[in-house]
Design a protein that fits this description.
Blueprint lengths: L11 H6 L23 E5 L24 H5 L4 E4 L4 E4 L7 E2 L6 E5 L14 H12 L5 H9 E6 L4 E6 L6 H4 L14 H4 L18 E6 L5 E6 L7 H5 L7 E5 L4 H9 L11 H10 L3 E2 L9 E12 L9 H9 L3 H9 L14 H8 L3 H6 L9 E2 L2 H11 L9 H8 L3 E2 L3 H10 L3 E3 L2 E3 L7 E7 L4 H17 L2 E7 L1 H10 L4 E2 L4 E2 L6 H8 L21 H10 L9 H15 L3 E8 L3 E2 L3 E2 L26 E2 L4
Parallel strand pairs: 1-10, 17-18, 17-19
Antiparallel strand pairs: 2-3, 4-5, 5-7, 6-7, 8-9, 9-10, 11-22, 12-19, 12-20, 12-21, 13-14, 15-16, 23-24
Length: 633
């Protein structure tokens, strides 16, 4: 069905490792490798691969890995987001923040009554006040610099009410100190545990949290993390909002390569996957009838993950500080071949700063399509190609794909509005104008040295970004650049990004779930977040210094989401982003994140859309009451 990228290592090796028949239900008395009953243990693919510091559970320390269950099951935030409705809801807070003045610089926050830490102590505003003071007074925390820009002071009214006085207008406080997409950095920790510790060095293991599970055990090698449902789950926000979680245990488990993860799914030893490739999905669905992707048919994947993928540059370093060089790299990229090589073309393309999820594509990508088509450089050259969707559909149809839409409008909805032309001749012209030279098919920098580019890539996680790095490197090598891929584990991958110690990378600094994504754009692109290379960035890890982009963000900052100027100003930001081209967003994220229903009912799919498939977000804890063990599991 799909055009293959390279040699896919699923063949005799895979088949010889399959031990159990895929259709067999394992006995309810069978135990997991960590000693819990399989029928009541939800096994989740571990995002980020093996964790090299498994007992570092301090949520504010640089390098703590949050997505192996910490922010999904241990910590709750003040406000969360329901991806099915696109609306935020109170979590640890009892209600949305109450604005106390017209300029949105003072708010009352009310905590839920009856919440307890996992050791039984009550959660009160004393904990919240302690957290604010601790973060502000611990400059070693990357989040400290950000919070210092927001909170001026606070007033504790009683055990459940606190007034926050801010340094700037914050009409989106529920985003600033809550969750917009993946999670939030303001994760309350208990005062009675932390007040006697040095927060900058405290490992916090095992963590005392506010979520519905406790961390029971970890693999010292970082390959698995086991969580157990709290007996007093009623005293958590999840319990108060949705009721009792279904799984008694949740095991986050790293199996290794994609082949081994597929084997685990075939053998019913993995219930919820992280990203796999289209080819791997073909094998899993053929081998295990209980496997299900987000959609039952083409395109199978969910296209609305709110972070787009592409190639990021370290913008303070030469030559990435040159706008014309960045544009030349776009025109040297054959986006169709990259899409086919990455995920067999089952991707929605994006040329803008925010991802092409349906709500954002309807608000920006599609309304701006004519503008991008007419957009021209100073010399009159028009770089935009609006035909990507039609061309990609034709390629896939020729390869035998079925179920493709017929109208151009529907194809644009599926595959995106278009991208930049593949024009090596124009890219060559632009680079030569900047002093680069092409000698015997190889590019040299203005100083005469060979032009070498290293692209950081995830290793055995985030497969779309991993493959995209290799596909782009192939493109750039064909163009004459010595481009290589450096695969990295999760800790190194993100430390390099946050510290700015990279050349280029297959990262994803373009996120948003709603048309008003100001808070995320501000975090990624405002120049006030810039810190020297080598220091963890509180935002703007690309260190991109743009007066124009920052100025537009400053205009939007005091406006509520429903203000009539908010969307027009965000559109101006998108246009300026196109002009400056600070990074190369390429595709929205296609999530092939299958579930295996052998043991569980209620796993989210397009047909059971109470939430999206993004279990690596902090909102995964709210899936738990919907996920229930099968009576015959």
């Amino acid at each position: 069905m799909y055009k293959k990228y390279g040699k896919i290592l699923f063949s005799v090796f895979l088949l010889t490792l399959i031990i159990l028949p895929s259709t067999a239900l394992v006995s309810a008395q069978d135990m997991t490798e960590v000693g819990t009953p399989r029928a009541t243990t939800l096994i989740v693919d571990q995002l980020g691969g093996r964790i090299n510091n498994p007992t570092q559970t301090n949520p504010y320390q640089a390098g703590t890995h949050m997505s192996a269950g910490l922010h999904q099951l241990i910590y709750s935030t003040l406000w969360e987001i329901n991806t099915a409705t696109g609306e935020q809801f109170p979590a640890l807070a009892a209600e949305m923040p109450e604005a106390l003045n017209d300029d949105f610089t003072s708010f009352r926050v009310t905590l839920r009554d009856g919440l307890r830490w996992s050791d039984g102590e009550p959660i009160t505003t004393a904990d919240m006040a302690f957290n604010i003071d601790m973060i502000l007074n611990t400059p070693e925390f990357p989040y400290s610099g950000f919070l210092a820009q927001v909170i001026d002071n606070y007033e504790v009214e009683d055990e459940l009410n606190i007034i926050l006085n801010l340094k700037r207008s914050e009409p989106r406080l529920a985003y600033t100190l809550g969750v917009h997409i993946w999670g939030d950095n303001f994760r309350m920790v208990p005062k009675h545990i932390w007040e006697n510790e040095d927060p900058a060095t405290f490992q916090n293991y095992p963590p005392v949290g506010s979520g519905p599970y406790t961390m029971t055990d970890v693999d010292p090698n970082g390959n698995w993390f086991l969580y157990t449902k709290r007996d007093d789950w009623q005293h958590t926000d999840v319990g108060q909002i949705y009721g009792e979680p279904g799984p008694e245990f949740v095991l986050f488990r790293f199996y290794g390569t994609e082949e081994r993860r597929i084997i685990a799914g075939i053998q019913n030893q993995l219930d919820i996957f992280t990203d796999i490739s289209p080819e791997a999905w073909d094998i899993l669905r053929d081998a295990n009838p209980n496997a299900r992707a987000w959609h039952a048919g083409f395109p199978y994947a969910n296209f609305d993950d709110p972070c787009e993928r592409g190639i990021v540059f370290s913008n303070t370093q030469e030559p990435w500080d040159n706008q014309n060089v960045r544009w030349a790299m776009a025109l040297a990229t054959d986006i169709k071949s990259v899409g086919l090589a990455t995920f067999a073309g089952i991707l929605r393309v994006s040329p803008l700063a925010t991802p092409p999820v349906q709500a954002i594509q309807d608000a920006f990508h599609k309304p701006m399509r004519d503008w991008m088509t007419e957009f021209a450089f100073e010399d009159g050259y028009q770089p935009f190609d609006p035909n990507y969707a039609v061309d990609m559909a034709a390629i896939l149809a020729e390869q035998g794909s079925e179920g493709l839409p017929e109208s151009e409008e529907a194809l644009v909805d599926l595959f995106g509005v278009g991208w930049w032309k593949h024009d090596p001749a124009k890219a060559t012209e632009m680079l030569e104008a900047e002093g680069f030279t092409l000698d015997n098919g190889a590019w040299h920098k203005p100083d005469g040295s060979p032009w070498q580019i290293t692209i950081n890539s995830p290793s055995n996680f985030e497969v779309q970004s991993q493959r995209l790095a290799f596909a782009v490197a192939d493109n750039w090598r064909d163009f004459g650049i010595d481009a290589t891929v450096q695969q990295m584990d999760g800790g190194s991958f993100w430390s390099n990004y946050n510290n700015g110690t990279f050349d280029a990378g297959s990262y994803w600094p373009g996120c948003g779930a709603l048309p008003d994504s100001w808070d995320l754009l501000d975090a990624f692109w405002h120049k006030r977040h810039i810190v020297p290379i080598g220091q963890p960035a509180p935002g703007n890890a690309m260190r991109y210094d743009s007066d124009a982009l920052s100025g537009i963000l400053d205009q939007i900052a005091p406006l509520p989401s429903d203000h009539p100027d908010t969307i027009p100003l965000l559109t101006e930001f998108e246009k300026q982003f196109v002009v400056e081209r600070p990074w190369l967003p390429m595709f929205g994220t296609s999530k092939f994140v299958p579930v295996v229903t052998t043991y569980w009912d209620g796993l989210p799919t397009a047909d059971n859309f109470y939430e999206g498939p993004w279990w690596w977000w902090s909102l995964f804890k709210y899936h738990m009451p919907f996920i229930q063990p099968k009576s015959d599991g």
